[in-house]
C-alpha cells in the first residue's frame, strides 16, 4: 500500500522520509503540479484540504494520503504568522523572505527574544476514513538568524531547553523534538493500522 505525501515542500519531504520506515512518495511524482487552495483558518482544516484534494485525484484508492500543515506562532505578536507561515511575505514568498519578514516584525516591536511555538497537523485520508493528529514544539524566537540547518523559520527558533537555534542544531536532534516528529509518532500507529 502506497503512502503518498501531499506536499511539495522539500524540507518537509526530507524530514518525512527520514522519519518513516516505509517509502513515502511525493504527490507531484504521480500527479504533477497541482494548485491546492489552503483557505481554512486552522492547521487541521488546511491539512484535511490538502490530503482530501490529493486522495480525490488518485486512481489508486488503496493508497494512503498523508499531509502536513504547519507553521510558527508568536503569541506576543497576536499569533502571527500561524496558518499564514508559508505565505507570510506574500503569495509565492520564499522561506528566506518569510524568515526575514518575521525578524523585521520582531525588531519593529522592539523585541529581541520571545516565546513562540511550531504546530504541525498531520491529516491521513484513506478508503477507511480520515484522521488528524497534532504535535507542538515550544521555544523562543530571536530577532536574528543563526545557522543554515533545517528550513523555514528554523534559523531564528531556539527550542526549549537548548541554547542554539534549529539552524545550528542537527536534523537528527530536530526529528526527536519537533512538532512534525511528535505528530508523526501519533500518526504512525494509525498508518500501520490502515495498512493491515
Ligand atoms: P505549509 O506547507 O502550508 O504547511 O506551510 C508551512 C510553513 O510553515 C513552511 O513554509 C515554513 O515556513 C513553516 N514551517 C513549518 N514547519 C517548519 C519547520 O519545521 N521549520 C521551519 N519552518 C517551518
Note down, in words, how this protein is organized:
- Helices cover 35% and strands 26% of the residues.
- It has 196 residues and is an alpha/beta fold.
- The chain has one domain (3-194): Maf protein, CATH 3.90.950.
- Strands 1, 2, 3, 4, 5, 6 and 7 form a seven-stranded mixed β-sheet that branches.
- Helix 5 packs across helix 6 (179-195).
- The protein is globular and about 50 Å long.
- The model has no long low-confidence stretch (mean pLDDT 94).
- Residues 9, 38, 69-72, 85-86, 95, 98, 118, 150-154, 178, 180 line the site of inosinic acid.
- Inosinic acid binds next to strand 3 and helix 4.
Topology:
Elements: E1 3-5, H1 10-19, E2 24-26, H2 27-31, H3 43-57, E3 64-74, E4 80-81, H4 95-108, E5 113-126, E6 129-142, E7 157-159, H5 171-177, H6 179-195
Parallel strand pairs: 1-2, 1-3
Antiparallel strand pairs: 3-4, 3-5, 5-6, 6-7
Helix pairs in contact: 5-6
- From the spread of the alpha carbons, the general shape counts as globular
Q: Termini separation (Å)?
A: 9 Å
Integer-rounded radius of gyration: 17 Å
Number of helices: 6
Would you list the SSEs in sequence order as H and E? EHEHHEEHEEEHH
Low-confidence stretches: none
CATH fold naming: Maf protein
How many DSSP E strands? 7
Ligand identities: inosinic acid
Approximately how much beta-strand content do the residues carry? 25-35%
- Mean pLDDT, nearest integer? 94
State the helical fraction: 25-40%
The CATH architecture can be given as Alpha-Beta Complex
Amino acid at each position: 500500500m502506497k503512502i503518498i505525501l501531499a506536499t511539495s515542500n522539500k524540507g518537509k519531504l526530507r524530514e518525512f522520509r527520514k522519519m518513516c520506515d516505509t517509502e513515502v512518495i511525493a504527490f507531484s511524482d504521480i500527479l504533477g503540479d497541482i494548485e491546492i487552495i489552503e483557505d481554512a483558518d486552522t492547521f487541521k482544516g488546511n491539512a484535511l484540504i490538502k490530503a482530501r484534494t490529493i486522495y480525490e485525484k488518485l486512481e489508486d484508492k488503496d493508497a494512503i494520503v498523508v499531509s502536513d500543515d504547519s507553521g510558527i506562532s508568536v503569541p506576543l505578536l497576536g499569533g502571527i504568522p500561524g496558518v499564514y507561515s508559508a505565505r507570510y511575505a506574500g503569495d509565492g514568498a520564499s522561506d528566506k523572505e518569510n524568515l526575514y519578514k518575521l525578524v523585521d516584525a520582531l525588531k519593529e516591536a522592539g523585541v529581541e527574544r520571545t516565546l513562540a511555538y511550531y504546530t504541525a497537523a498531520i491529516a491521513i485520508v484513506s478508503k477507511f476514513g480520515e484522521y488528524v493528529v497534532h504535535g507542538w514544539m515550544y521555544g523562543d524566537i530571536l530577532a536574528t538568524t543563526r545557522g543554515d540547518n533545517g528550513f523555514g523559520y528554523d534559523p531564528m527558533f531556539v527550542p526549549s531547553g537548548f541554547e542554539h537555534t534549529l539552524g545550528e542544531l542537527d536534523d537528527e536532534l530536530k526529528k526527536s523534538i519537533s512538532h512534525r516528529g511528535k505528530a508523526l509518532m501519533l500518526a504512525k500507529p494509525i498508518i500501520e493500522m490502515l495498512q493491515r
